[in-house]
Amino acid sequence: MDTQRDGTKSLYESIGGAETVRRLVEAFYPNVQADPDIGPLFPEDITPVMEKQYLFLTQFFGGPPLYSEQYGHPMMRARHLPFPITPERADAWLRCMKRALEEIGLSPEWRDIVLERLKAPAYHFVNTP
Ligand code: HEM
Predict the structure, then answer these.
(1) CB 56 less than 6 A from any atom of ligand 1
(2) Cα(42) to centroid of ligand 1, in Å?
């Protein structure tokens, strides 16, 4: 279903689809909440954020466009503007993600590919020196 038009597998499919994205999100947010640089930016009730991230990462990795179906155009940089995101906070976000990828036991090869894909948006969302 999520094979791309050229017949190759999407990143979503390659890393294990819905189950992997779910596990990744569930591993990621406890790391975020425990992080002194970015934890305080998030609400105490993290469940709605986790759900949105599940929908977004599904689509970002090339799976079904679940986020857009519910929330329209992602406009992710704009949605992050209310929060002061410094380069250090982008580093912290990526560190939490790297640890989550390790925790769910994704192979080092796929881990690097996923992190590399997320680096560009993370630094693109920086809006504060
Ligand atoms: C660069 C460092 C980042 C920081 C500090 C950060 C922080 C935040 C914060 C504070 C929220 C709002 C939580 C709330 O609802 O109150 C949020 C929402 C969100 N973030 Fe990030 N974020 C970062 C990078 C990213 C990246 C790289 C992605 C995905 C590629 C991402 C995806 C999302 C999504 C999908 C939401 C929910 C948007 C919505 O409300 O619909 N974030 N983020």
Answers:
(1) yes
(2) 9
Position 76 in a domain:
yes
pTM: 0.97
Residue 34: which of 109, 100, 114, 105 has the closest Cα? 100
Ligand 1 mean position, distance from CA 6 (Å): 31
DSSP 47-114: HHHHHHHHHHHHHHTTS--HHHHHHSS--HHHHHTTS---HHHHHHHHHHHHHHHHHTT--HHHHHHH
What is the rounded CA–CA span in Å between residue 127 and residue 83?
8
When divided into structural domains, the chain yields a total of 1
Report pLDDT for 51: 98
CATH number at residue 31: 1.10.490.10
End-to-end CA distance of the chain: 42
Provide the pLDDT confidence category of residue 1 given band limits of 50, 70 and 90: low
28 lines ligand 1 (CB under 6 A): no
- Report yes or no on 110 lying in a domain: yes
